[in-house]
Design goal:
CATH class of the largest domain: Alpha Beta
Strand order of the largest sheet: 2-1-3-4-5-11
Number of helices: 12
Number of strands: 12
Largest sheet: 6 strands, parallel
CATH topology of the largest domain: Rossmann fold
Order of helices and strands: HHHHEHEHEHEEHEHEHEHEEHEE
Helix content: 40-55%
Distance between the termini: 71 Å
Shape: elongated
CATH superfamily of the largest domain: Response regulator
Strand content: 5-15%
Number of domains: 2
Structural class: alpha/beta
Length: 331
Amino acid sequence: MVIMSDVAKLANVSMQTVSRVINDKDQVSVKTRAAVLAAIEQLGYRPNTIARALASRRSKSIGLISTGIAARSLSKRMLAFNEAARASGYQVSIVSIDDADYQGLLDAFDVLLAQNVEGIVVIAADRDLLDALHEIKVDVPLVISEGSSVPGLHHVSVDQFEGARIATRHLLDLGHRDIRHIAGPARSLDASERLRGWRTAMSEEGLAAPDALIGDWRPSSGYEAGLVLSQTRDFTAVFCANDQMVIGLLHAFSEAGIRVPDDVSIVGFDDIPEAAHLIPALTTVRQDFDELGQRIMDTLIAEIEGTELTIPASTLPELIIRKSTRALRFN
């Protein structure tokens, strides 16, 4: 099936320019219009009739692109943004892509642009998707939600780096110096920023950060990391990149006879609903997804309407102190 991006590629224009020609907009030069029409005829492209019907007025529709990575924080971002969009009178069309590569992202943009969306939000969970974004140009407002700033693109995020730094800082303030880290997947932007935050906090204290153990966000990987750590016991604290992996970590430590927080203090990240009910109740970093969703929507509306937005691009997470951490006691 011929899609809009095929036409754009053949005519050497953006997909939005193809959309303007299809919908008979007047912002296209005669030469460009001719090139697009020639490409349409050559390829036998049949434009979406619903999108054409919407072209004469504002669609009040926006697009949301996310990867298929199963992470709780990703689904929370999507839900919060949907709620904020509905409250602002917009409908959201969602495209989830399993392969976060150039072609997968290009196809996702094509689907949304064919629906005459006024703007697009991309929740960039992994590095591949972010890299692909730099190679694709679209003429509708675009906002990226991910864990770090994106040069040249509008972004809104929770400051994952600062969240990890304050988590590690909490352990340092309690007297811990041998702090291990269980990180998320290497391709994850959030995991990379949390890893960087831990290393920075250690460096600020003049401490060398040991090699991190790498997990996959699931409890099973936290359990595996816990088995490895249980063999060494050359640490007094662990900062874990998410709460789900902490569940497995606690399991492994329990089997090894390591008491939390008497022997080892633990800090997680996300503040999942179960965190307050673990034994011991988990000290963790809370992200305000409702605020994040509203900021994403406010930023996108400002881009759509061409107004100035003064709110910060990132929100700060909050450390929630419970029972899994304590001051280091020397024997």
